[in-house]
Design a protein that fits this description.
By secondary structure, this protein is α/β, with parallel strands linked by helices. The protein is 40% helix and 16% strand. Bound molecules: nicotinamide-adenine-dinucleotide (NAD).
Length: 339
């Protein structure tokens, strides 16, 4: 298929582009580089042996998005582009609503106008809200605890409404749990700008000497070791879930499919620190500090619908995630180069 990938220079997008190319799809990327470096592109090309066409603009720009869809002869779009930092979304809600909603509206309008009605969308387990029943199943009600989460709830709703109005759409809403890890080559990985918001990039930066100690937010949760439990999923498994969803859209009877992409296993923060320490070969220093506002104690998926309908399941272990994240971080202590 000819596939347009928005946000394809970002963390999950870049890993997915590599797998799409490996599966024989023709891929073009559009990315504003608001949260990515251009030096990821030659890394993708080196891994795949393909030249990648990259359009460097903001998908909120309706004229440019319209022109891209008019000329691209795309058969499907995977929409990763968006802002994703929960804390930043609390501090700057308008920029999150602007970017996440406008990019989706601009893209979907242009797709509709040019008859490209297959879309895979990056949603999140955050749409299960503050106190979900466990394990989290796709049919649970949606809500959110912060502006970022609300943008995901709203984007899902917009896409459902678009598909309800025109049944020729085929839309996959993929609810990711906690993506971590890196490409096994060590040449691509997660490269947060500024303070990492997520656990694994933070531990990786402690391990490589960029930060002194890890802060573990809360040690008094109602969990076996008192720290939060999350369903960590290797970014390579997640990328494979996108390829599976893209294939599924072609055969789908209903306009919208919703799939959790997780392992179904909860791992505590301290278990993750121990796994990362095994990967590095030494204990990593941490302090248990106050809880962080908005964190829920436990989050893990029921991934059985994705098994049944996409023929997909996560296969990589927590040790694989840490070994690959460490290979990436130790080979690229400062992340991707600027030029
Ligand atoms: N990483 C996670 O923990 C996680 C979890 C659940 C859902 N998601 C969602 O998955 C998607 C990808 O996440 P990621 O971790 O790869 O993030 P990322 O920031 O690495 O990638 C997003 C990419 O989109 C680009 N971008 C942002 N706004 C844009 C716009 N308006 N036009 C064009 N490009 C734009 C950025 O430059 C970046 O390259 C996001 O929508 C995110 O909300 C991520």
């Amino acid at each position: 298929m000819r596939v347009l990938v928005t946000g394809g220079a970002g963390y999950i997008g870049s890993h997915t582009v590599v797998q799409l190319l490996a599966a024989g799809h023709q891929v073009e990327v559009v990315d504003s580089f608001a949260n990515a470096k251009a030096s990821v592109v030659p890394r993708i090309e080196a891994l795949t042996g393909s030249l990648l066409t990259v359009h460097a603009f903001d998908v909120c720009d309706r004229d440019k998005t319209e022109a891209l869809l008019a000329g691209g002869a795309f058969e499907a779009v995977i929409h990763f582009a968006g802002f994703k930092a929960v804390g930043e979304s609390v501090a700057e809600p308008l920029s999150y609503y602007d970017n996440n909603l406008d990019s989706t509206l601009s893209l979907v309008r242009a797709m509709n106008r040019h008859g490209v009605r297959r879309l895979v969308f990056s949603s999140s387990a955050t749409v299960y809200g503050a106190d979900p029943e466990l394990p989290m199943r796709e049919e649970l009600p949606t809500s959110a605890t912060n502006p970022y989460g609300w943008t995901k709830v709203m984007q899902e709703q917009i896409l459902r409404d678009v598909a309800a109005a025109d049944h020729s759409w085929r839309i996959g809403l993929l609810r990711y749990f906690n993506p971590v890890g890196a490409h096994p080559s060590g040449t691509m990985g997660e490269d947060p700008q500024g303070n990492p918001n997520n656990l694994v990039p933070f531990i990786a930066q402690v391990a490589v000497g960029r930060r002194e100690r890890l802060a573990v937010f809360g040690g008094d949760y109602d969990t076996p070791d008192g720290t939060c439990l999350r369903d960590y999923i290797h970014v390579e498994d997640l990328a494979a879930g996108h390829v599976a969803a893209l294939h599924r859209l072609q055969a789908m009877a209903e306009p919208v499919g919703v799939w959790n992409l997780g392992t179904g296993q909860g791992t505590s923060v301290l278990e993750m620190v121990a796994a990362f320490s095994r990967a590095v070969g030494r204990d990593l220093p941490y302090d248990i500090v106050e809880r962080r506002a908005g964190d829920i104690a436990v989050s893990y998926a029921d991934p059985s619908r994705a098994h049944a309908e996409l023929g997909w399941r996560a296969v990589k272990s927590v040790d694989d995630m840490c070994a690959d994240a460490w290979r990436w971080q130790s080979a690229n202590p400062q992340g991707y180069p600027d030029a």
